[in-house]
Amino acid sequence: MYDTLARIEKQLADIELDCLRKTYEATRPKYIERATAINAIPSFWPTVIDEAPAEIDQRIQPRDVPALNCLVGIDVERFEVLDADNGEVRSIKLTFTFKPNEWFHDERIEKKFYWRMSQTGWAGLVSEPVSIQWKDRDLTEGLLDMAVGIWRKEKELKARGQNRDDIRATNEFKALVEKVERTPQDAISIFAFFGFRGHHIDAEESQASMERGKSMVDGVERHFEGLDTESLVMPDTEIYPHGEDVVVAFSEDLYPGATQYFTAAKERDTKISDEELVSESDTSDASDDTYDEEHVGRPNKKPNVSKE
User: Fold this and answer.
1) What is the rounded distance in angstroms from the CA atom of residue 239 to the CA atom of residue 151?
2) pLDDT surpassing 90 at residue 103
3) Greatest alpha-carbon span in the chain
4) Cβ distance 113 to 92 under 8 Å?
5) For residue 224, is pLDDT > 90?
6) Integer angstrom CA distances of residue 87 from 18, 20, 24, 25, 300
7) Which 8-state DSSP code applies to residue 251?
8) C-beta separation of 135 from 104 below 8 A
9) For 220-239, what is the mean pLDDT?
10) Helix, strand, coil % (nearest 5) of the chain?
11) Are 239 and 143 in contact (CB under 8 A)?
12) Which of 235, 231, 213, 230 lies closest to 222, judged by CA?
């Protein structure tokens, strides 16, 4: 009975992925068309960001707002999808486009998130840190540059055939761990999001894990039976542990619902403006009443009578 249930659950999961892949292929051209229309609307994306869901909104610091107000484009791509029937649809690329500003030189910042599976059965999104070419002020206060530096050093060690964990003995690694420990998470700039890595799972490990998960046992696909899928701990050098929540909020909520967020913001602003007008009118009426009370007994002006 349980084997049959497990098989059905796996088949349902595969169907959901097929539907997501086909939906992406069908809607992608329309999102490109929508982007063209959005380009003609001033401050569209800053307005949408101002209405962002909690997973994004609570990560924005006051110092981030002026830079975010320079956003002119957000795009989401399922970049590993080859066609409607093939490719990993859960991998995502976010692209942020900015107008010239005083914080950084970059006009486009792209970040890829790869869907990976670990040897323990954990599955989710991982990434590589992306640098930002800051001008006078680094909004992440050095965190992003340090994370990028550690990642590049790890790549150098791997290229030389050394163990990636050897970096733990370096001063750069220790400095980043110390900075992460002393920096409150609720004070970190949302731009540190570009430094998110997640669990350090490469493509080779993920492929081997997925093949193992699909291995046949007694004629049934069993996925890491008996393994602890919660055993992975976020690395000490992770500067943005909420990164996966943020990318999901961008790709599955804010980006597809951008028009609705923008419309809601405009309707709210219109309502506030109307209420302010009513309030000003009430204040004016109250002043007129006071004036009338102060001038009781004075003769009223003769009303104008229009000629027929």
Assistant:
1) 12
2) yes
3) 104
4) yes
5) no
6) 10, 11, 12, 11, 83
7) I
8) yes
9) 62
10) 50, 15, 35
11) yes
12) 213
pLDDT in tens, 19-71: 999 999 999 999 999 999 999 999 999 999 999 999 999 999 999 999 999 99
**DSSP-assigned states of every residue in 146-211:** HHHHHHHHHHHHHHTT--GGGGGGSHHHHHHHHHHHHS-GGGS-GGGGGG---S---HHHHHHHHH
8 A C-beta contact, residue 64 and residue 139: yes
Nearest Cα neighbor of 78 from 117, 16, 25 is: 25
Contact partners, residue 53, CB within 8 Å, separation at least 6: 249, 253, 254
Which residue type, as a one-letter code, is found at position 104?
A: F
In DSSP terms, which residues pair with 98 in a beta bridge?
Answer: 71
Token pair belonging to 306: 């229009």
* Long-range CB contacts (within 8 A, 24+) of 255-262: 255/74, 255/75, 255/76, 258/38, 258/44, 258/45, 258/48, 258/74, 259/34, 261/47, 261/48, 261/51, 261/52, 262/41, 262/44, 262/47, 262/48, 262/51
The DSSP bridge partners found for residue 113 are 92, 127
Q: Give the lowest-confidence range in 49-58, 211-220, 266-275.
A: 211-220
Q: How confident is the model at residue 184 (pLDDT cuts 50, 70, 90)?
A: very high
Confidence of residue 288 (pLDDT cuts 50, 70, 90): low
| 3-class secondary-structure state, position 134 | strand
Tell me if 42 sits within 8 A of 99, measured CB to CB. Answer: no
Specify the DSSP element, H or E, that contains 23.
Answer: helix 2-38
